[in-house]
Each structure stands twice: as C-alpha cells, then as structure tokens.
Amino acid sequence: MSLIQAENLTKIYGAGEAAITALDHVNLTVNGGEFVAVMGPSGCGKSTLLHLLGGLDHPTEGSASIDGQPLAKMSDDAVTQLRRRKIGLVFQFFNLIPILSSVENAALPLLLDGVTPSAAKQKAAEWLTKVGLGERLASRPDQLSAGQQQRVAIARALITNPVLVLADEPTGNLDSKSSDEIAALLKQVAKEWGRAVFMVTHDPRIAAHAERIVSMKDGKIVEDRHNAKGEG
Questions:
Q1: 9 part of a folded domain
Q2: Residue 24 counted as domain residue
Q3: In the list 66, 151, 198, 199, which could disulfide-bond 131, CB 3.0-4.6 Å?
Q4: 3-state secondary structure of 179
Q5: Whole-prediction pTM value?
C-alpha cells in the first residue's frame, strides 16, 4: 500500500465568479522512503497540495490517505494526533522558539506528546547529532546560521519517528550553499533513515536531489518523472 494516496484532490477557494481552483483533481501516490520534489511556478497549487496531504486544510472534493488512514473520515483531534506522530513538518520559516536552545526546540513534539523532559531532550540530542549539530545543542536560534536553524527544524520534524516528512520550500530562506546542504540532508532522511520526503520547491537545483520530480501548473500535475540523478 502507498504511504500517500491522493484521489481527485481538489481545492476551490471562494464561490461563483470569484471562485479560484487552486488544485484540480490531482491523483498521486508516494511510497515509503521515497523522496519526491514538487515543482512549479508560484500559485500552481503545490503548497495547497502539501497542506491537504498534511491535514492542514480540507479538500473541496476528492480524498487523501496517509499510511492507509483517510483524512476526511478522521476527527480534527485524530488528524492532529496523526500529524504529531506520523508526519514531520518543515517550513521555509523555521518556526523555532527564540528563547529555547536547539535541544529544547527539537524536543518540543515529544513534550507535547507526554514524554518526560529528560527522555525528550536525550532523543533531541541524538537527532541533532545526526543532522550535524551535536556541538550546538545549547545554542539559541539567534546564535545559529539560517542553515543551522533549518537543521534544528528538521531534527524536530524527525524526533517522533514519522513515516513522512512534508517540506514546504525548506531552502527558500537559505543561501545556495546551505540550500544544497539541506537538500542533501533531506535525501539522507529518505535514503538512510527510510522516511518518505515530500518537498515543495521552486528551485530546479534543489529538486534535482529528489528521486522523483512532480511538475505542476494551474492546479494540475503536468509531469511526474523518475530522476536518475537523485538516486546517487
């Protein structure tokens, strides 16, 4: 069974003459451990697709399932729990809490799920070390570069051992060197750590790290191709 299953997924904002179709009957499957990049111009529907797959928004029509669980048939609380335990979210803006250290920021999802602070911090330290920040556990966000802050955000996304990481323009705020490093790290998340990564990006260089590239235009998927370059 596919990890992500989207069928005729449609999102329309507004009504009547003012209606805007952001997503137009999209069909898509993503398997566990697969690294998929979604590309397209601004306004093509790629972020809307990610939000629907993450249960952050509701479709106008169609359905989406994550790990065999149909989002539309779940209560808001159940979707929140699914997102907390099975989905890691990474955004363009790192959404770190300024007064907390790296290890405290990364530990937050476990603390919200009732894990003891000592166990949560230990797990956070393990993931921060894996993403290359073992020396910066006590650093606050303002003591880190933008690329390092995004690594903290990725550690935070991985700490609950999700089956899926949704990354919305994760390199949008980074210079080219840091962007390449974050894209390579997301590739590692899929290849070595076995998580599916679904990444939205407008940057072809970043998309090239993925093993599959989905291109969108006007709310539709116009191309879905295997990327041999992204396998190495």
A1: no
A2: no
A3: 151
A4: helix
A5: 0.90
The CATH number of whichever domain residue 116 belongs to comes to 3.40.50.300
Reduce the secondary structure of 111-156 to three states and give it as a string: HHCCCCHHHHHHHHHHHHHHCCCCCCCCCCHHHCCHHHHHHHHHHH
CA–CA distance, 62 with 227 (Å, rounded to integer): 28
Q: Which domain holds residue 50?
A: 32-59+70-231
Q: Would residue 49 count as lying in a domain? A: yes
Distance of CA 67 to the CA centre of its chain: 15
pLDDT tens track for 67-78: 888 888 888 888
Q: How many structural domains compose the chain?
A: 1
Would 115 be classed as within a structural domain?
Answer: yes
- Radius of gyration of the chain from Cα atoms? 17
22 by DSSP, 3-state: which?
strand
Q: ∠ at Cα 81 (2, 83), nearest 5°?
A: 50
All residues at 6 or more sequence positions from 114 whose CB lies less than 8 Å from its CB, including other chains = none
Percent of the chain with pLDDT over 90: 54
Please name the residues in contact with 194: beta carbons below 8 A apart, sequence gap of 6 or more. 32, 33
Write the pLDDT tens digit of every residue in 158-168: 999 899 999 99
SS3 for 70-108 is EHHHCCHHHHHHHHHHHEEEEECCCCCCCCCCHHHHHHH
Q: Which residue would you say has higher pLDDT here, 85 or 21? A: 21
